[in-house]
Amino acid sequence: MDIIANYGTTLVLVAALFGFLMAWGIGANDVANAMGTSVGTKSLTIRQAIIIAMIFEFAGAYLAGGEVTATIRSGIIDSNAFVDSPDLLVLGMIASLLAAGAWLILASYFGWPVSTTHSIIGAIVGFAVVSIGPEAVQWNKFGGIVGSWVITPAISGVIAYFMFISVQKLIFNTDDPLNNAKRYVPFYMFLTALVICLVTIKKGLTHVGLHLTDGEGVMLSVAISIAVAFAGWIYIRGQKYNPQDDSKMHFANVEKVFGILMVITACAMAFAHGSNDVANAIGPLSAVASIVASGGEISGQAAIAWWILPLGGIGIVIGLATMGEKVMATVGTGITHLTPSRGFAAQLATAATVVIASGTGLPISTTQTLVGAVMGVGLARGIAALNLGVLRNIVVSWVITLPAGAILAIGIFYVLQACFS
After folding, report:
1. How far apart are CA 55 and CA 180, in angstroms?
2. End-to-end CA distance of the chain, in Å?
């Protein structure tokens, strides 16, 4: 308790610095994963991807990120175990931020697409075990999170597989793919808009004081999605193509239509990522700020300080801009060859899976969800379409990440204890 009383402001400033570093790592690694398919298919330039990420990451974090933030802050470990020693929790959360952020930046430097969720959870569990003991970890919740790392890639892979199969059957494997694209793409636009609207209206608008019943939320979501689909239908109908073009040109024109749709799914993916993974940076930082502000009182329901969300959002955008290209290349082109239609299927499946998980408050790995979706698209064309060597390296990096976060956090925790004791 004396540490908080004597060094409270310093602890918050250090936590803010390391939280920014963590957000930087998220931007370099996880947001690169989220936007990699769009950049890999050349539907978006890197600059456009950064602008989209900046807008929609903020929106997702503010409107739909509260549930996951609460889980990261107080759900992985038993906060009651730290009631008599809140200084240990503060130092541990600071150590976790630095450990996870350092690992993410290192992984991004080498182009490894790892999981920010693995990193921060491993770090939190590591410091909790050495500071209080194994009883400080809520292993039942930890087990559920580990299970989600297997379940969510499978879900996103299945959704992406059938989404791409439907695109193939309804559009590409027909006699007139271009006209069929004009006919069916608005339906895919409707689905994409519906995924975003449902989570935003269902739980996000409560943050700004607007409360709707379930029925009202569904009706408003459907209405907005119909408007988006209608606007897309008008735009696509207005595009002029030469009917005398050969089949290759028709396919190219269809991909252009899906290129438009990729922009929408990129927005969806950025929103979904913001709602889920920004919590990895702002959750521990919020815990430190609230404990210091209350003089050592631990509360799982503490409000997030006004400056924390902008700090996380800015860090993410800078990380994407400065270090995101290598991981984008791995995800966007390394696993399988992606076209806009394939990338759309992967992104929409990922967005749907991540947003659903975010609504339940369960922190999942966006990286694993997207890789599962990209694998699903690749498998739709046969196992030979997948680069198994790249997939092997990705899986190895996943396995290493959890213990790496724990080991780094333990070492940093002991250093911080020595510095502030």
Report:
1. 32
2. 11
